[in-house]
């Protein structure tokens, strides 16, 4: 009997010792991954951009959406194509700011010294003046701290030197900058664009837009605007993951067409039905993203560095000074495009040192087809009248009336590879209370 108990005791001790040894081995186990293809270092070596990097330029991405020439009673304008913007801002680049004056008004902005012959560059977003001068125009100047603008006037003084007026979004502030630029250089650039300009009209919506410096400008009677069809292919989601994740990812879940990827520093969701991708960087701080002076340059370099603009005409379209989110939007022939599913947008929020949040469609243009059709739109006056007479609309909240392309997304699942065919049709769009809406029959869709 004692012998049996003695044997049981020995077996129990051996089991305990074996458990201790196995636990130690698990804790200290280090696998040999020298030949594995999925190691972090190997993954970083094989990381490839989603398209050719560095194809976008700052001055064609941080850019206005229209160019206006106001000359007395005559107003002409055009969408801000890449060629047109390059022509207009070229004489301004790498020049000197002689003096800076910051003016504030409690009511509507009036600039007494503004001549009757000036150029307007209209932006769809708030932009730090220091960022535009330094990163787009290559001008080093001391400007009011954190001053934002969304309209730039190019005027000339009596000595023939160019004077710039950067006007704030609320139309109550302006920064006047005298430059070393010769007015004749700007005149030559403007003359070269005259054949592409059409008649524009001036619209007053509230007390902030009653002066010639603050009117809303829109094409008087848009006509013969081409329609297009685009065929898209799809960026491989693994390419996106390789760009954004520093090491290997884990597929956490895949259900209802949505796949989630994550590692220790980030998480991404991909919807294979909408082809939309959303990445969140867990190592960045959202609260650090509201400094637009850093955010605009940071997001541009980030997107351009991994080919995020896809070699296509994406431009900054909106800035949210509260959340720090920037939206880059697809343009076509100088006109902004709009899509109800946001398939034409790239949305980025910057952190302290890198991207915090990144959303985009993985659709990439494969073929652009000119349908051959041309469309004329109703007059700007008809749009203005329709909005002003709509009892459901507060006309004073209208801040822009412009032509854009409606991107009507039409997925085609008949092929082996899923393709998207989209019609791009011109129509009127209205910025109302800070958001853009399609105009239809006197109302907003």
Automatic annotation (TrEMBL):
<feature type="region of interest" description="Disordered">
    <location>
        <begin position="35"/>
        <end position="58"/>
    </location>
</feature>
<keyword id="KW-0812">Transmembrane</keyword>
<dbReference type="InterPro" id="IPR009996">
    <property type="entry name" value="YycH"/>
</dbReference>
<dbReference type="Pfam" id="PF07435">
    <property type="entry name" value="YycH"/>
</dbReference>
<keyword id="KW-0472">Membrane</keyword>
<keyword id="KW-1133">Transmembrane helix</keyword>
<protein>
    <recommendedName>
        <fullName>Regulatory protein YycH domain-containing protein</fullName>
    </recommendedName>
</protein>
<feature type="domain" description="Regulatory protein YycH">
    <location>
        <begin position="5"/>
        <end position="442"/>
    </location>
</feature>
<feature type="transmembrane region" description="Helical">
    <location>
        <begin position="7"/>
        <end position="27"/>
    </location>
</feature>
<dbReference type="InterPro" id="IPR042274">
    <property type="entry name" value="YycH/YycI_2"/>
</dbReference>
